[in-house]
Design brief:
single chain, 234 residues, mainly alpha, 7 helices
């Protein structure tokens, strides 16, 4: 049984490495094209400054795609059917999927802190804008103060990415590739929108938990309606 668990865990891990590796590569390429006029040293510094924040935003969606890819591959090559002969249900890796997603989410939360903008760029502050020694208050004569650095998020990204990983496994098992490709960008927009509105005070703080909760509902619905061992050629 340990060998079976190790096999399933390796499948999930390889799917995550493929999804996140591909995502980071595409983001780095896009940043390189955008900063093509910079020198090599400046471009490398800009990529290292910007890439972690971009990846942290896309980490839940990439985790969903990685889990869906791993589950679909296990279904397609007959691994699930083979495991079924030993009495192993396809829901067995759910715990590992949650743990792996939480670990990715913790890393995303640590890297998701907005980088300090260069002194040559305008930055939003309390009561106005700041660029180096220049202060432009929102109200003439007002006082502009630098914003206190926000502590890195931990619990919310971990829970959201864990839910995305679990839902991705369900989508890979019981839904087609077209469904995965449609659900992933739609959910990513919903997740980013909920976070942005909550950060700006346009939505209550608990709104950031809605996207992850929605994915858990989708996963539960798929588990109830999906076959115990999906067909190999589906």
């Amino acid at each position: 049984m340990r060998r079976i668990t190790r096999l399933v865990a390796l499948r999930l891990l390889s799917g995550q490495l493929l999804a996140h590796g591909s995502g980071v590569s595409v983001l780095a390429l896009a940043l390189a094209v955008e900063g093509s006029e910079l020198s090599v040293t400046e471009l490398a510094a800009e990529i290292l400054r910007t890439l972690p924040g971009l990846w942290s935003t896309l980490a839940p969606a990439l985790a969903l795609l990685g889990a869906a890819f791993a589950a679909a591959r296990a279904r397609r090559d007959g691994t699930l059917l083979a495991l079924g002969t030993f009495g192993v249900a396809p829901t067995r890796p759910a715990g590992f999927a949650l743990a792996l997603g939480a670990a990715i989410g913790l890393a995303a939360g640590e890297l998701g802190v907005a980088p300090t903008p260069p002194a040559t760029e305008w930055a939003r502050a309390e009561g106005g804008w700041i660029r180096g020694a220049e202060h432009v208050p929102d109200i003439p004569g007002g006082v502009v103060r630098p914003r206190a650095p926000a502590p890195p998020e931990r619990l919310r990204p971990a829970a959201s990415t864990a839910a995305a990983t679990l839902a991705g496994g369900g989508l890979g098992l019981w839904a087609g590739a077209a469904t995965v490709l449609v659900v992933t960008p739609v959910w990513l927009v919903f997740d980013v929108l909920a976070r942005t509105l909550a950060e700006r005070g346009a939505a209550p703080d608990w709104a950031v938990w809605l996207p992850g909760g929605l994915l858990l509902l989708v996963t539960a619905a798929l588990a109830r309606r999906g076959p115990l061992f999906p067909a190999r050629g589906r």
